[in-house]
Amino acid sequence: MRAISQLAAYRSVVLLLWALAAYDTVTSRGLFWDGSAFLVSLLDHERFHDFYAARAHIDWLTQLPVLAVAEFGVRDTRLLAVVYSAALFAVPVAFYHFALARVRHDASLLAVVVAIVIVVYLPTSFFIVGEYSPTFAAVTAAMMVALTTNGRSIRDAVILCAIGALCLRSYEAMVYLGPLVAAAVIWASRRAASADLGLRVLNAIAALAFIGAAVVSMSTIVDYWDHPHFLKVRSTSVDFWQNIQFAIPLVGFAICGVAALRNPAWLQGRGPIVVLGVIAVLLALTPWWRLVHPASILYPPSHYVARQAAGILLALLLGGMWLIVARRERPPAVLVVLRLEPVSRRMVALLTALTFAAAVPDIALTRLWSGYLEGLRIVVDGRAGIVRAETLPLHEWPNKLFFQDWSFPALAAVISRTPGKAYVVSDQDYLSNPPFEPACGMLPKLGGYGWGS
Fold first, then answer.
1. In which domain, by residue range, is 166 found?
2. pLDDT tens, 10-51?
3. HEC string of 243-258?
4. Which residues are paired to 385 by β-bridges?
5. pLDDT in tens, 372-389
6. Are 206 and 238 in contact (CB under 8 A)?
7. Which of 304, 320, 299, 305 is nearest to 253 (CA)?
8. What's the number of domains the chain is made of?
9. Does a structural domain hold residue 76?
């Protein structure tokens, strides 16, 4: 009965993730914010937009499909936007699918991976062009391999090497995630006393790759420490609370964690059902909070703001999973209770239900995004020359959720049937809110391309 329950939970979460990815793809959600500027750069220059070398491996992986399709002569920017969105969503979802598959027979580990999907991936994925989404997913997958391998599998060692190579140049969060995964890989390797030399070498290569990722990240942080964009990022890193999709489940998990540590028997009562049930209802109702309190809105840019807090939370959750696996003998009291079949089975069921609740705001925002794109497309196709963004209803609902001044020309060009006929440009000096790369603020060309061509 327990295996069936876990299998149903695993399949439900996986199907939900792929269904959301499909919906987000057909609505071209990869164009949000920086995504449109990156796509324009890919098409105008016909090469990878890997201006930021420290994240190049993730960029190559997610940008290759659209470059390949364009190379075969596709000039329909709508189709190209779909292809780009598909790659951006497929990579992290594939890694989370893999991670869930690795732990589907262990209720405790499965519950934590589902929690990662709820509080790390879904609340930060509207800004899907951010390299952190594939990185966080890849790190989760690597940790699941390290924690579930028997230490004598060449396949597992090769998988860890491949993920390590990808993460080598992925995202600055590897400065702390890299050493964590490397330590777990070494720990897993040392558990296998009979492993041959070749296998140990592969595990060592994987560990070195993750250590290398931390080194690359650290050097990047040092190099860009005084860059205006990094200064702005650091100043907003404590504003994660503005993302209610992130804050609500975080509060719920924190309440459950504190209560369980203080009194492990709490997990056996109705407490988790009440707390996570309330959290699920609150999360599912977030699209309508503004009707009661206008300031309480789902705000896609806050996904970008919450990414740093999400990375730190991911490290804590992965560390907790390592503790669950490592402390099989003489475990803490809370782990003893958590491993009880009724408790672990109920936690998996509760978190699966919470995943579906967390999908509601994602779907609601995507519907608004689709309407926003269509409205902007009508404006661009019906005008000529320079259109001042300030003359458009940008601050009305729901336009204010998606507008970014410096990427507006790129987005307007991508969704135009005749790029170059009209540009939507914002009145800004590009100093108060500059693009990370100055070229992203230029007017795009897209000669020969067109939406629906």
1. 2-369
2. 999 999 999 999 999 999 999 998 899 899 989 988 888 877
3. CHHHHHHHHHHHHHHH
4. 422
5. 999 888 888 888 778 877
6. no
7. 320
8. 2
9. yes
